[in-house]
Structure formats: C-alpha cells, structure tokens
Write a structure and sequence with these properties.
Layout: H1 13-22, H2 28-33, H3 39-50, H4 54-64, H5 66-78, H6 82-98, H7 103-113, H8 130-146, H9 153-167, H10 176-186, H11 190-197, H12 201-211, H13 217-230, H14 234-240, H15 245-255, H16 259-274, H17 279-291, H18 294-302, H19 309-328, H20 331-341, H21 353-359, H22 365-380, H23 384-400, H24 404-410, H25 413-420, H26 426-440
Helix pairs in contact: 3-5, 5-6, 5-7, 6-8, 8-10, 9-12, 10-13, 12-13, 13-16, 15-16, 16-17, 16-19, 17-19, 22-23, 23-26, 25-26
Domain ATPase V1 complex subunit H C-terminal: 329-444
Family: Belongs to the V-ATPase H subunit family.
GO molecular function, one term: proton-transporting ATPase activity, rotational mechanism
Length: 449
C-alpha cells in the first residue's frame, strides 16, 4: 500500500525560515580577505550562487568536483557565525533536493579522505540553533536514503537518537514537523527502522502524538505514518506490543473524523498482525486490539461508507482476523480481557466453580499481575458492579487457591475489602461481606456458600 501525501499542505516554521535564509545577502569576500576561507572556496561559492538554472548548477559542480565539497565543509566549519552556516546548509539542502544523485560528490570525497560522508555533518546536530540542526537532518536524510552509502553503526545510532530527542521537545519545538518528515523518508529503509525501535523510538512517537494533539490532524497523520512504516519490520511489530501504541492509536480511531488519519491508523493495526511472524505475537496483537474495542470501532466505521479501496480492505482484514481470535478465546482469555479493561460484569466465568478450579492459580502468573489488578479495582473503582464482581472474584481465588488468603493479605486486599463493608451500596456490602468471610475463615466450606 502506498499513501499519497501533500507535503505542501502546511507551511512549517522550518520552511518559512528556509525562505528567509535563501534571501540572505552574503559578502564572502570579507572572509577571503580575513583568510577565514581559501580563494578556491570563494571561487566556488560565488560561481555557484550566480548559476541561475539547474543545468548551470550541475555544470559548476562538475567543474569544481571535489573542490565543491571541500568548500562546503570549510564554510560550515571555519565560519562560526550561525547565519553563514545556515546559508551554506540551505544551499546544500536545495542542491540535493534538486537532484538527490548529487549525494555522490560527498561520497567520492569521503572515500578519498577515508571517512564517512556523514561525518561532514554529524557535529552540527548538537548546535543550539535549531534551524541548523533540522536542515542538517534534512541533508542527512537525503544522503542516507538516496545515496549509495547507507549510514550504519554508531553514526546511525547518533542520528536516530538525535531525531528521537527532537520529538520529545513537544509543541514548543517549532521544527517537530521537519523531524517527523525526515523519519517518514528514513523509515523506508529497514535497518533504519530497527535502529529507531531499539532506542525506544515508539515511546517518543506516542509522546509526540499526545503533545501535538492540538496542532491539527496533519502532524498527527504524519506521526502515525511513521509508526505504520516501522511496523513493516517484524521485530518492530513485535516490540510495538510491549508499549501502549495500540491503546494510543485506538483512542484516535474512536475520535477522529479525518479519513486519511483513520486510513493510516487502520493500516498500522493491520501491520501489527500481518508483520508479526510468530503466531503467539499475532494473537497478542489481536488481544490488545480486542481489549481496546477495535471490533466495535470498526463496526461504527462501517456506517461511514468509505470509498477508499485500501481502507475497506484493511478494515475487512482486521474484522476477519479479530473474529477468529474471539471465536477461539478460552473462558480465561475472556476473563483476562475483562479484567484488563476494568469492565467487570457477571459473565458466566465468575460464578462457575469449574472455571475457578482450573484457573484460580493463574491469577498469580506474571508476579500476580491479575490479582493485583483485582485488588486495585477494590481500592480505586467507583463502579458498584465492578466492586461487586471484584470482591466476589477475590473470594473465589481464596476459596480455590490453597495459599490465596496469604497472597491477598500481603497485597493489601484484606484491608481494601474491609473498607467496602462501610460503603452505601448494599450490593457492594453484601459481596464484600461474603469475600471477607472467606478471607477470615480457614474452612470456607463451613459457610455453606
């Protein structure tokens, strides 16, 4: 699937700054006289500035060859004034935007110097001037994706770490859209996806979604687009399940009216199932979607009568895959799903002795994760139905698990239960009383319950 984008839909702060930089009047002769730059650097930059067409600029670059790169590097490194560094980087970025094949001139010089072509620019990523940082991101992205020499190793980790940091600055960062656009291009390359995911990149993307939610749907779309690209990698699709990515984009799916955002969210959810190679991980992805009510949200979206063929196909795929999982869910899977959603109700499992005989011990799995969730509900829920069911389930856990009373006591469940004996709701008091009796009496059968 390929999603079209209108990159000119919004004028970013970065683009406006670039327009200002392009109109800057320079006097390179001053730097030549002060011997800050060599005559050869001056000759190249002035000649290149005067070239009016793409063909003319290509001719200048072919005449100067490696001298052009040396000139660019000298202008970036020998003149400390930000305005001139900005101008030089903008020329380079425009040069590569005009013809990405020109990345080869940096690669050829790097080979002569026995260094990486990226090393010419990496030092600029720690500059305080954010325009310099983000125009450098733009240049590095073009080189890394369209050049012959891919960025690897420590250099790759440094670039990805810098991009991640750029995302975490929130809406106060006027250049966040530029960082995201660079990611949209970089994540076409599989090794770049893996590098970003391995430094907890998903966390920065979800953080950016929250921090930019008042900035309009376009940046929201672009951030989720990055998530979608990442999930084409099986490792990245698996890592996504350990965080809150599904929860985050599921919330957007339920609230957003823009079709392009809905399309990219649904496509990302599809990838999280389709790209995972392990059957267990596929099931985990499906379970998370079911927990976040994706089947219900898809049913609501079906009423929208979308015309987009790809969106309809993705929705059909998701509905089919999730239906398969729902059909094979065991009663404990359903129970766990209820518990994780915090929406306990009197489903058959709660009052089935066979269920508790077979499954009571499973509340202790993963360091008593599910038992802790039940006790947390006793302490924090304001829903009388949830309190009734949670109190009942803890009583059944104690009843059917030999050391259940001790575990509940150690986790503070007994105190939480006792507090429920004083609430206003009579049903809550009733179920809390039954559970409290099971907690306090060793031979629960004597109760005749």
């Amino acid at each position: 699937m390929v999603f079209g984008e209108n990159q000119d839909l919004i004028r970013t702060h970065f683009q406006k700054e670039a327009d200002k930089v392009r109109t800057m009047k320079t006097n390179w002769g001053l730097f030549t006289k002060s011997r800050m730059i060599a005559q050869s650097d001056y000759d190249f930059i002035v000649t290149y500035e005067q070239a009016e067409t793409e063909a003319d600029r290509s001719t200048v670059l072919s005449v100067f060859k490696e001298k052009a790169v040396y000139a660019f590097v000298h202008l970036m490194s020998q003149i400390s004034k930000d305005d001139y560094v900005r101008y030089t980087l903008t020329i380079i970025d425009d040069m590569l935007r005009e013809d990405v094949g020109r990345t080869i001139i940096f690669e050829d010089v790097a080979k002569l110097l026995k260094r990486s072509p990226y090393s010419f620019f990496l030092g600029l990523l720690h500059r305080e001037d954010q325009y310099i940082v983000h125009i450098t991101f733009s240049i590095l992205t073009k080189m890394a994706v369209f050049g012959n020499m891919k960025i690897t190793g420590d250099e790759l980790d440094y670039v990805m770490g810098s991009l991640k940091e750029a995302l975490t600055r929130g809406t106060g960062n006027d250049y966040i859209a530029t960082a995201v656009r660079c990611m949209q291009t970089l994540f076409r390359v599989d090794s770049y996806r893996v590098s970003f995911v391995n430094i907890n990149g998903y966390d920065s993307l979800t953080h950016a979604l929250y921090s930019t939610r008042k900035c309009g749907f376009q940046i929201q779309y672009q951030i989720i687009f990055c998530m979608w690209l990442l999930t084409f990698n099986s490792h990245a699709a698996e890592v996504a399940l350990s965080g809150n990515l599904i929860h985050t984009i599921s919330g957007i799916l339920g609230n957003c009216q823009k079709e392009k955002v809905i399309r990219i969210v649904v496509a990302t959810l599809r990838n999280l199932i389709a790209s995972n190679e392990d059957d267990y991980m596929k099931k985990q992805a499906s379970l998370q979607m079911i927990q976040n009510r994706i089947p219900i949200k898809l049913d609501h979206l079906e009423n929208r009568k979308f015309q987009d063929v790809d969106l309809i196909d993705d929705m059909t795929f998701l509905r089919t895959e999730l239906k398969k999982v729902v059909q094979v869910l065991t009663s404990f899977d359903e129970y766990e799903n209820e518990l994780r959603l915090g929406s306990l109700h009197w489903s058959p499992a709660h009052k089935c002795e066979v269920f508790w005989t077979e499954n009571a011990h499973r509340l202790n799995d993963n360091r008593q994760e599910l038992l802790k969730l039940l006790i947390t509900m006793l302490e924090k829920s304001n829903d009388p139905l949830v309190l009734c069911v949670a109190a009942h389930d803890i009583g059944e856990f104690v009843r059917f698990y030999p050391r259940g009373k001790m575990h509940v006591d150690l986790l503070g469940g007994k105190e939480a239960m006792m507090r429920l004996l004083t609430v206003m709701d009579p049903n809550v008091r009733y179920h809390a009383l039954l559970a409290a009796q099971k907690l306090m009496i060793n031979h629960w059968k004597d109760l005749g319950l």
